[in-house]
Amino acid sequence: MFSIPIQEVLAKLPIAQLGETLMQFVQPFVEGMPDRRLQRVVPQAVQGILGSQTPVVTGMAQSTSRLEADVWPTAKRIYRFLHNPRLSADTLFEGLYRVAQHTVAHEQPPYLVVAVDPVNFEKPYTHQLEGVSTVHKSTPPDRYGKARLVRGYPAITATVVNTRVPATTYANWFSYTLDFLSQNHEIRCALRQSRKLFVERQVRFVGDSGLDDQKIVGWVQECGAEFVIRASHLERVVEIYNPHRQEWEAEHLQELVDTVPFEAEWLIEFKHAGYTRQATIQIGWLHARLPESELPVWVLVAYEAATDQGQERTLVLLTNVPIEGVEVAQSIYSDWRLRARIEHGYRFDQEQGLDVEDMRVQTVERMRRLFALVLVAAQFVFHLMEKWPPQAVQWLREVGGKLGLGIDRDGPYLLLRGLSAIWQTVATLTHLALHPFPHHAFLSHEDQSCG
Question: Helix axis angle, 183-197 relative to 214-222, nearest 10°?
Fold first, then answer.
């Protein structure tokens, strides 16, 4: 049996380093709060979310040190934070944006690639909560492999995806039944807010086919930003300049895609679910304009040749970035591939990560506040991966259950489990120090049984 005193065990854990790193990370987040007492709740709530891997308030309170407060007082403190009338979810979202500005200022990328993506969160057994809506959910699919209509809440985020630490430039959790205008309105707010945060930087928005809308393209132009959007309406008509006739001629986009000449070819790796496959990519491009607005666009066509593990696929991207050569075309394709990081972030917020869908508060305002806290908690994991020495991060992953095998993945999930193990250990040891386990009760119980 080991006989190490509890205080010595606590001293060997990286509690002080974690606390210091967390306080530094959330400092921009809490700057706009009206009260220092509210500011002190934020690191405690973020630690609780990471320690319990859930936004359930009682779970958050159970993973805090008993030397600071017992479970019920901690839970009451967090509940008061979520209910406080002097605070709003918008204040927390503004804190998120300040964290994004600090992240970008620290990493200094040459330009910002911002992914904008709506998402739906499921509340499968909910019928009476405020603002609960019917949303379209494709993951997981139904038994026929198709998307489902379920009860839940829509949300949207815009995230800088070409930094090592994700940086949220817009976030909202809303309801279709409460003060909802349209999804396009939310997308426009995301574009404007992201541009407002980084007025002096070049911003390139990337989006999936849901953003293939001429109004959205026009809004990006209004912001003075660039865009790379996957085309979904290949039946549309665009205009191509004819140098012989010196005029613009209308053509179907699909016909142009089918005949575009490829200018470059290279081998690329795709990674998904722990597997890596290689494919040959061929790219070509052409210059066009949209008929009504006469907005100039470039059409980038990327063809993925068939392999043993995949099928032939053609990706069509629309952009306002002038494609003047192979290098620019490759950078546009690479930037669009970064868009997948926002989907990986959503999966980390859900499923085996922080389980954001398991909120147990009863108003949309409180859900929005918890949503902001979950986003901060998720970003802190990536911040830790970047900020701490590799040996310290490796140690946390080993605590989280790293097997030391080739199939191990050094992503955020394993680090999250390590953080959870540390804070759960602190909660257990501090409770044990204050309330030793009643071993004597077993002896008296055995005596009574024998009697």
Answer: 20
Do 83 and 175 form a contact (C-beta atoms < 8 A)?
no
Question: Which residue has 């613009």 as its token pair?
Answer: 248
The single-letter code of the amino acid at 85 is P
pLDDT in tens, 282-303: 999 999 998 877 889 999 999 9
Phi and psi at residue 199, to the nearest 5°: -65, -35
Of 445, 357, 422, 444, which Cα lies nearest the Cα of 64? 422
Is the C-alpha dihedral spanning 433, 434, 437, 438 positive or negative? positive
| Helices marked H in 291-363 | 326-337, 340-349
Grouping H, G, I as helix, E, B as strand and the rest as coil, residue 282 is strand
Give the torsion through C-alpha atoms of 286, 287, 292, 295, to 10 deg: 130
- The CA-based diameter of the chain, rounded to the nearest angstrom, is 109
Give the DSSP H/E element, type plus range, for residue 195: helix 183-197
Residue 449's identity, in one-letter code, is S
Dist CA 224 CA 365 (whole Å): 33
Instruction: Let me know: does 115 contact 342? Beta carbons within 8 Å.
Output: yes
**What would the pLDDT profile of 393-419 be if each residue is shown by its tens digit?**
999 999 988 776 655 567 899 999 999
Sign of CA dihedral 324, 326, 327, 329: positive
Transcribe 70-82 into DSSP letters. -HHHHHHHHHHHH
Single out the residue of 231, 210, 201 nearest to residue 111, CA to CA.
Answer: 201
Comparing CA positions, the residue from 369, 249, 262 lying closest to residue 305 is 262
* 7-21, 98-112, 281-295: which is most confident: 98-112
Amino acid at 248: W
What is the C-alpha end-to-end distance of the chain, expressed in Å?
A: 31
